[in-house]
Design brief:
three-stranded antiparallel β-sheet; two-stranded antiparallel sheet; 1 helix; about 10% helix
């Protein structure tokens, strides 16, 4: 049986990030960006478990935004956590900004709101600083 999976650079980067999020051990490395080979370092005993990203729409070049509901409040976010990659489709969790702006450990909160997108619709991704999400 032939594998008709159409992997792209973006899907490969997202698969890499997904693997990093599963393995939280990291030596102190100063690399930044999508290709940093681990999440981290840990601060104050918290181990980073998320490399948040933003997505750019291929037709307009603008940031992709998605609505979410968290604790009965609705909002819109442009920050996501990769949850699953399946060939050229990916499922993301929408991350909400933490209303506690003093909390530098957790700038984003997990919303448990997800969406799946065909990566052909994504022009580019941007990796944000590694962080911890609940």
């Amino acid at each position: 049986m032939e594998n008709n999976c159409k992997e792209t650079c973006i899907s490969k980067i997202l698969e890499f990030i997904l693997e990093l999020q599963k393995n939280t051990e990291c030596p102190n490395i100063d690399n930044v960006g999508c290709d940093k080979p681990c999440l981290g370092p840990s601060i104050n005993g918290y181990i980073y478990n998320t490399r948040p990203i933003t997505l750019y729409c291929c037709s307009t070049g603008t940031l992709w935004s998605m609505p979410y509901t968290l604790n009965g409040e609705t909002g819109t976010s442009t920050v996501f956590k990769i949850n699953k990659v399946d060939c050229n489709c990916a499922t993301f969790e929408i991350l909400a900004p933490n209303p506690d702006t003093e909390n530098t450990i957790m700038p984003y909160l997990s919303t448990n709101n997800f969406f799946t997108i065909n990566l052909d619709c994504v022009l580019a991704i941007r990796c944000l600083n590694d962080t911890y999400t609940n």
